[in-house]
Design brief:
This protein is an all-alpha fold. The chain has two helices and no strands.
Length: about 70
């Protein structure tokens, strides 16, 4: 259960960083370093979520749905 809460929190943080990057992009600010920082965080946490899911499946903490056929 804790693993699922961590994954949900990371996904919400990913969406939050995506919106923050969008707000920075819409502003006509000559300093665009913040936008790349937010997008970089989003990519890093997306990779972290994928690795966490693969590790949890390999260790048997979570099980995927069975095949439909």
């Amino acid at each position: 259960m804790l693993l699922k809460l961590v994954i949900i929190a990371l996904l919400l943080f990913i969406v939050f960083n995506l919106f923050r990057a969008g707000i920075v992009m819409l502003r006509n600010d000559p300093e665009q370093k913040q936008m790349s920082r937010f997008l970089g965080r989003r990519v890093f946490y997306s990779v972290l979520v994928l690795l966490l899911l693969l590790l949890a499946m390999a260790l048997g903490w979570i099980t995927p749905n069975p095949r439909p056929y």
